[in-house]
Write a structure and sequence with these properties.
The chain is built from 15 helices and 20 strands. It has 2 domains: 10-252 and 455-479, 3-Layer(aba) Sandwich (Aldehyde Dehydrogenase, Chain A, domain 1); 256-438, Aldehyde Dehydrogenase, Chain A, domain 2, CATH 3.40.309. 39% of the residues lie in helices and 21% in strands. The radius of gyration is 23 Å and the shape is globular. By secondary structure, the chain is of the alpha/beta class. The strands form 5 sheets. It has a 7-stranded mixed sheet, sandwiched between helices.
């Protein structure tokens, strides 16, 4: 039996069904080859998927936690069994180097297993009451039907940070993968199907946000939405849920500052900044989008960054040695073009890179880029670039650095390089991001540690017990013993 069917379909109510709508052709950013013809769910099919999830909700909610844990854990094993072909497929769908794709599959399977373990070992509280005849206990219950709308940059890891815990908690799901990585979404649904998940608990619909996403998020049958994407789309989804007060778990991107202080180990800082700027070709919400450097070490750090960037050459992501592949599509590459052009017009200097690479099958390969003398007013310092760019912003004082770091509407991840523990702790308290990483890449994550944004970068947290809590609601039950 193959691990993925040749004919691509929607998965609704436990059946793989052909769409009544159109299809779109998926092409690889790696070499321009056609990967698949993907069905686009109609508005009617999106509603059918929601109805299927609603129909399965009560039975799944009442399924014993140990049984839910067993099925979810089995899905992790199903994913591992697909690992070689799934990793190659990630690389071809969105350009991630093969070594990173393999790591994503391994980490994703660990995350699914953690969701199973969290629900299996869940403990709630017994609370004494003032009234001697009364006792209280708390329980966690699912919300009901959740829409999970996923991005393409980590097509397994990111959707599974929401989907795995939502299912383990007893919710039912309508899952829409990104249109850039539909095959990854299909595999996720198949993993849970093969694990023995009851019909209707997970439903897969493909398509774009304008049609399929709109049909899903407009439904009054949703009890929750888990979304990872842009602030603009997140606002539109939230506005649709306002009258229903639907539960939201959002991660809405970042414009992460990394601060290099005058006492930092510059070699260490340059190595980790490069990882945070160029890993996954910069297509990471936790990426270092602004590198704030003390003016006392600015010139020395600039030269180290230029030298370190030489190790981050763009190449064919199918090669084992490649560290940086192409960008996912032209919309992302054009945004990088626009941000670099704006920075140049505003006085920044390109010290290395700054253009699309030549000699590749597509024009989506982008050179790793160091920009000197970037100011906070430039687009590249205000928006999420999502490309392999290291914009260096000088600062004179810590107060100025904190003010720049906290400017704008994002608040996802940040980093600080310093040898001084007091300074590190103080800055971790002053910088308004959901994650602050000291002396390592801002892209560092651990599946046991809560992750999410402050300000407009998100609502709620994922990972570990915090992931389970985000998809569960607390209930208090009183017993009268009098």
């Amino acid at each position: 039996m193959t691990d993925r069917p040749k004919e691509h379909r929607l998965f609704i109510g436990g059946r793989w069904v052909a769409s009544k709508g159109e299809t779109f052709t998926e092409k690889s950013p790696v070499d321009g080859s056609v990967l698949a013809s993907i069905p686009v769910a109609t508005a009617e099919e999106a509603r059918e998927a929601i109805d299927a999830a609603a129909g399965a909700a009560e039975a799944w909610r009442m399924t014993p936690r140990t049984e839910r844990a067993r099925i979810v854990a089995s899905a992790a094993e199903q994913l591992l069994s697909m690992a070689p072909s799934a990793a190659r497929e990630i690389t071809m769908e969105m350009g991630k180097p093969l070594a990173m794709s393999r790591h994503e599959i391994t980490l994703s399977s660990r995350l699914i297993r953690d969701a199973a373990e969290q629900i299996r070992t869940l403990e709630t509280s017994y609370i004494p009451c003032d009234d001697p005849n009364m006792r209280a206990v708390t329980t966690l219950e699912p919300y009901g039907v959740f829409a999970i709308i996923a991005p393409w940059n980590f097509p397994y890891l990111v959707p599974l940070t929401t989907l795995s815990y939502a299912v383990a908690a007893g919710n039912t799901i309508v899952f829409k993968p990104a249109e850039q990585t539909p095959l990854a979404g299909e595999r996720i649904a198949r993993c849970f199907e093969r694990a023995g998940l009851p019909k209707g608990v997970i439903n897969l619909v493909q398509g774009n946000g304008e049609v399929t996403g709109e049909a899903i998020t407009s439904s009054h049958k949703l009890d929750g939405v888990g979304f990872t994407g842009s602030i603009e789309v997140g606002k539109r989804i939230a506005a649709k849920q306002g009258d229903k007060l639907t539960h939201l778990v959002f991660e809405l991107g970042g414009n992460g500052p990394m601060l290099v202080l005058e006492d930092a180990d510059l070699a260490q800082a340059a190595r980790y900044v490069a990882e945070a700027c160029y890993g996954n070709s910069g297509q990471d919400c936790q990426a270092a989008e602004r590198v704030l450097v003390s003016d006392k070490v600015y010139d020395a750090f600039l030269e180290r960054m230029i030298d370190t960037t030489k190790d981050w050459k763009v190449d064919d992501p199918r090669k084992a040695s490649t560290r940086m592949g192409p960008l996912v599509d032209n919309s992302i590459a054009s945004k990088v073009d626009r941000h670099i052009a704006d920075a140049k017009r505003s006085g920044a200097k390109i010290r290395t890179g700054g253009r699309r690479a030549k000699g590749f099958p597509t024009d989506l390969y982008y050179e790793s880029t160091v920009l000197e003398d970037v100011s906070p007013e430039m687009l590249i310092a205000r928006e999420e670039t999502f490309g392999p760019v290291c914009p260096l912003v000088p600062f004179e004082s810590l107060d100025e650095a904190v003010a720049i770091a906290n400017s704008g509407e994002y608040g996802l991840a940040s980093g600080v390089f310093t040898r001084d523990l007091r300074t590190a702790m103080t800055l971790s308290e002053r910088i308004k991001t959901g994650e602050v990483v000291i002396n390592a890449a801002s892209t560092f994550m651990d599946i046991n540690v809560p992750f999410g944004g402050m300000r407009k970068s998100g609502i709620g947290r994922v990972n570990g017990k915090y992931g389970l809590m985000s998809f569960s609601q607390l209930k208090s039950v009183f017993y009268n013993l009098g």
